[in-house]
Amino acid sequence: MPPSPPEPTAVTPRQWRHGLVWALLSPLFLGIVPIFAKVAYSVGVGVLTVVTFRTLFAAAVIWLTMLLFRRHLIRSSAFAIAGSMVAGGINGIGSLFFYASLSRIDASLGQLINITYLVFVTLLLRLAGQAVSRLTLFRLGLILLAIYLLTMGSLGEPDWLGVGMMLFAALTYAIQLVFSQRIMLDIPAPTMTLYAVSAMALVVTAVWLLFPSDLVIVTAVGWQAIFLMGLATALSRLTLFLGVKRLGSMQAALLGVLEVLITVIIAITWLGEQLTAVQWLGALLILISILLVRYERGVPKRVDWWHVFWRWLRRGRNP
User: Fold this and answer.
1) Could you write out the three-class secondary structure of the chain?
2) Which of these, 112, 117, 131, lies nearest to 296 by C-alpha position?
3) Exposed, middle or buried: residue 194 (CB in 10 Å: 0-12, 13-18, 19+)?
4) How far apart are CA 12 and CA 299, in angstroms?
5) For residues 204 and 243, what is the distance between their CA atoms, to the nearest angstrom?
6) Cβ-based neighbour number of residue 174 at 10 Å
7) Residue 274 φ/ψ, nearest 5 degrees
8) Of the ranges 11-25, 75-89, 273-287, which is most confident?
9) Most buried of 24, 76, 204, 302 (most Cβ within 10 A)?
10) What is the pTM of this model?
11) Does residue 101 surpass a pLDDT of 50?
12) What's the pLDDT tens digit per position in 240-250?
């Protein structure tokens, strides 16, 4: 049998407020990352170069910070470190699709599609706890209609490949978000951030080594954008896991809606992007689907994914 998780301790009002602050800071950092990616693309930096060195910079920032100020948090159990790296590896795969998508579609459209990870979070929690409800299916239907409006309502030709890659990135982010809540019963948030981002760096670096690019052609503006992406990524992951630890994956995910608002505002004012009336309708449908989560019943707040996996294995062996 897999190891049983420790019983979660009650969160005090002060800890809850701190978790709220961290969960609100995470979308602030995440919201500006796609803007820097667009800047890097505009000066000719390739997708794999952006993804790889942004993640390497983020990992370097976190390792340096931990070595200087939180060295005692580097050590943890093999079980917790392995879980953190699995979550980070999943997110690393998703980041490849996320930034490949941003090279094809606008940052504002990409973030509106990426926010569907909230629905994936609800679906994953519900699948682990009980059958899918009619409300969940209705919310998924709204999301599908919204994605159609966001894509077909664009001024240019719809890019379904870019949309599909962003949806896959949203799914992997949801998996990491839900999985991380279980892992952090055994590990502090900074420690999980360290190993999750390190695993992300290993995954994307392995892909870059298979398809290396010429770094000499990257301009100073490109390196600056990539470094700022790495810094924002490090801060976003730390604040995200701190928020999940105090609030849970569902509440932290709901607060992540601010990420879209930040990206859309900056993309419109700085990059000159625009949304059509049909796309705004699609954005409204996404918001409605997200807000309907308050009416979901029976969605578990915490899922022991090790026991879910163990039950799945036993069913496979004894059909």
Assistant:
1) CCCCCCCCCCCCHHHHHHHHHHHHHHHHHHHHHHHHHHHHHHCCCCHHHHHHHHHHHHHHHHHHHHHHHCHHHCCCCHHHHHHHHHHHHHHHHHHHHHHHHHCCCCHHHHHHHHCCHHHHHHHHHHHHHCCCCHHHHHHHHHHHHHHHHHHHCCCCCCCHHHHHHHHHHHHHHHHHHHHHHHHCCCCCHHHHHHHHHHHHHHHHHHHHHHCCCCHHHCCHHHHHHHHHHHHHHHHHHHHHHHHHHHHCHHHHHHHCHHHHHHHHHHHHHCCCCCCCHHHHHHHHHHHHHHHHHHHCCCCCCCCCHHHHHHHHHHHHHCC
2) 131
3) buried
4) 22
5) 25
6) 24
7) -140, 150
8) 75-89
9) 204
10) 0.73
11) yes
12) 666 655 555 55
Altogether, the residues listed in the chain come to a count of 319
Tell the residue number behind the tokens 């997200």, with chain if given. Answer: 290
